[in-house]
Known about the structure:
- The protein is mainly beta.
- The chain is built from 8 helices and 80 strands.
- The protein starts with a helix and ends in a 10-residue tail after the last helix.
Amino acid sequence: MQNVQRMSALGLESTTSAGKSHSARRGFVAALLAALALVVFASIPAAAQISNGGTPPSFDRQLRSNSERLVMPPVDVQALLAEDAADESKALPFRFGAPFDVNYSLENSGTWEDLADGGRIWRITFSSPGAYSINLIYSRYRLPEGAQLFVYNSDRSHVIGAFTAKNNKPHGEMATQPVFGDEVTVEYYEPAAVVYEGELTISRVVHAYKDIFKTAKDALDFGGSGSCNNNVNCPEGANWQKEKRSVAMVLLSGGTRWCSGSMINNVRQDKTPYFLTANHCLGSSNTWIIMFNYESPNCSNINGPTFMTVQGTTQKAAYSTSDVGLLLLNEAPPDSYKVTFGGWNNLNTNGDSAVAIHHPAGDIKKISFDYDSYESTDYLGSTVNSSLSHWRIGVWEDGTTEGGSSGSPLYNKQHQVVGQLHGGWAACNDLRADYYGKFSLSWNGGGTPSTRVKDWLDPDNTGATSMNTWDPYAGVQIVHTPLNDTKDSVNAYPVVSTITADAALIANALLLKYTINFVPYLDTLVTTGNPNEYVGYIPAQSPGTEINYYLEAHAINGKADTTATYSFRVIDYAMLLTPSASSTSGAVDDTVFHNFTLTNDGLFNDSYNLSLTGVNWATGIYDNAGTSVISSTGTLAPNAIFNFKVRVIVPLSSYGQQDTSFVTAVSVAEPLVTKTSSVRTTSAGQPLTLPFVDTFPTTTLEVAKWVYNTGATIDGVGTSEPSALYSLRFNGSADTVMSQAIDMEVSEGVNFSYAYERTGGGSSPETGDDLIIEYFNDQGNWVELSRQFGSGADMTAYATVTIGAPLDAYHSAFRLRLRSVGASDDDWFVDDIGLDFGPEIAVNHASFDETVAIGDSTNEQLIISNSGLGGLNYSLVLLPDFSKRMQLFSDLAASGQVNPASVVMEQPLLPESKAQETSNQRGPEVVYDAGGPDNFGYYWVDSDQPGGPVYNWVDIEGTGTQVTGLADDNFVGPFPIGFSFAYYDSVYTQFYIASNGYIGFGPTTDYDGLTNGGLPSNATPNNAIYWCWDDLNILDTDNPGGKVLYQVVGSDLVIQFEKYPEYNSNAVVGNIITAQIILSPSGNIKIQYESAGANMDLLGCTIGMENKNGLDGLQVALNAAYIHAGLAVEFTKPAQWLYLSSLGGSVAPGTADTIDLLFSSADLDTGIYKSKINIYNNDPVPGNNPLVVPAKLTVTPPPPPYTCGDCDNSTVVNISDAVYLIAFVFSGGPAPNPLMSADADCSGGVSISDAVYLIAYVFSGGPSPCAACK
């Protein structure tokens, strides 16, 4: 059969086509799965999943044809790896594969071949070049008895199967684990006699682009996990061998991602295969594949077995608050897997240590240790409260977790599960916290069987609060908590254990065997009265005695169990050294201290020698003050404590490098009494120095500035970035970036600043979807510095925040951390992050008050100085105050009584159609009688505002030029304006008239559009004045007589719309309006409304103006109650009178910038004009941003004409003018009028020298008055 067309649509290449020789089969629609499969190693046996083994029939036969071979499209591995780096988080399952969704079945693809015995073989081959392995998902799997399915690679070195009818499931889905290589063949054999024909549909092919198990020849180890992880079979894991067998790795998310999880015991202890994992790993669990016992056989990185898998699970309970998922395996693990069932504790009680067993990054099984108390917090929180949802592991002292560890169990010291991993930041190079959803909260969860685990793990409601891990394959099993050293030399020592067996125990074969001073002793265990609990006794011993013991139990079926040998001492000389492991971090050249406490826990005075081993970095033991080197404690009485420090100097190193040494204390009185604690120091790297600035100039995060990133990206999706082209974007539920250490060990005066934008060009955050900025303080804690709330309005421009650094931020290892919380797909954008000393802004003028005559100007200077230690950045915004009426607008704006330039509707307008007679979509209310300004400076005031424009109808119905050619949804023109009309940044001499309620100046794209909208808008039409933008129709036959006229009246152009009808397909009379637009040479625009008919839909139009690109404009009304008879709306064009030589700059510490100001009265009338210069800056002092400098200009009439030197107004200059002037100067005589007429020598003032100048002119022929004036 030919598949070229189908495969072309999928982007695949077919190299073979073959016909089918069997009867037509039933058709069905394959359901798309999100299913999974397990990566396996090339040397595994053929029966990898639970299957029946065997050899594919084609291996023993010479078939006539090759199988159909399909080549998958190329995989962009680098792009996938980049995405993985951005998504590196335990809150997101670890990804290894790229999926191809397909639809290949026995009916529509592959090659069939009939066999001589009447059976048939169907084969199909998938090639995905470069894949480390290929795994398959089946949306339909239903095989008849006798049929077999195999999957194998091209050289037949890896074969899995046979899968048979035993693998059929009620849901009909299936997944097979990965087969190594980049080409696999699926082979289906169906015998001649079957009850029904097989059904098989392959719905997904997964290309493994990560070599998780390092099958390549150049592989160094078997996983991508960090080197600080411990293999579970290292000595550290010796006491956790039973628990490790319950932990498994899970392939999920469409066969492309990994998580961890564990088998969990139930009160009935009946081997019900319940599986505990994380809620965030759930989804399409029918095709999950669970791999058990994938671990190294010893402490070395040796690959483990990968064939112990089961396929498919059913969800029983999930609760997102504690991130728990409880599943039931569809197949019980075979006995050969030796799976154990983990114990648990449902009490909300924190412990003093914890252990995690997990598969980090899909690696072999690892074990991690926390030797401190775990705390109750919220997810990713730091506030400690017992009522919260998660257990917080502050720092892993030995090992860590990584992506892929999600869902793995957290154990208390009783080896009981108390939580499962949700997420966190811990890694080999990151000493921050991990968070585990509480098992105690999951127990009752959301209060229903589907949201709590109680119903499944305690189905009989026994009230049990804990269970121990159960090994059903142990036969006889002894569980015992070893005895600790004791000071009791009087009372016998009870040895308590729990003993279970699959047959009756032999009462006299339950033994406690112990030795004292090499002499063996024996005691028989007896029941305590509690179920399965037994006790034996060791007699009290004198101080200094060491006892070795073990337990032994036998059952009647011959099975037995023997514990390890345990030891304890009756204390004579003893000590405690705490903590057993210390971890801290520091920047390069920092001196860090690890604090230790040694306690004499013995019965006698003792002293202790202190020493270090394993030292690589400069390390020493110091007294508790950290000033003197010590090597011993001196004599300590019983129970006395001695505090000391281990000092480490961090050498030149990169972020995340570690040094681990060991401090050992040895008793002087009894050298066999020793204690050792580990000392782990992590480098924070070379600290950066101030200033710290990042404007995100490229799409790659600078590793020199940022050492940690989970989920955040850099792109241009934000709008109007303050420093183009890019900004830092957060749109995940836990996206996080953390800075390199920054040396803030300075006095004070440092500011943190950043610009942010909510939503921008992305998705809107909601309540709880917040952006949080934190800093690392001098106590080693993360503290919230700033938070932007998701509940705020969407933003299309960035806002800037400047904050003075808190006192606890001044240390050498300061860091910044920015993160998003809440739901995913909610966008925050951050730009221009800065950390620097704060400036101190000052100006030389608190205000300006200038007076000039009409036509004159004057100059001033605004000096902006910086007396702080940090650089000053500033920008100037001149609030427009450009006309006499602007004083009214300024007063209204100051009192908050103006509408913004534009108000966006909560829901966008739907497109109108001719079937829609009136709009029922209401826009924002027009609250005030004025609005603006827009970016250019236009504003509007209407006649309803006291002091506003006056309605004065200019009727041109009988005199104007009537416009012809208007129809339904068209435009006409151009027509002459009659003068040069300035509109925004252009000048026009002609205009167009659109039939749907506006005039424009071109281009005329969509001037025939009928659907109105908000202003401004870059959608066409643009460059127009909208008097009533709606679906109008001048040719409406039910309302004849409509017309449009225009005429220059005086100096203005009047455009009149007389009895203009609205569009209506029904017979409606009276839906008409009469209005006019008046354009003035000054650039001002006036719209007047004379009348409107009773049936006119005045609630469905737009009134306003916008420029030619639709990015600036004014919206007066949008589908709102506004128009009424006798209303005038005036748009005022700015006429500037204050000019600034610069609009921004930077001022270094101790310097100043000078801004030249020009006050000009050109084109102004007499009167008072007011404005404000807003100086926006990064000075953190409240009230200084912006710094507001008021400006006032008084324009006076021009001075009366005068003759220079004519002081007495006689119209001639003679000696009497000199006498008049002398009398004014010396005797208080009347002043010359105007006074400047007496400034004969052009000195700028009036004095006796002007009289001398006049006398010389009159008697000696000197220069004429004002001859020297320029």
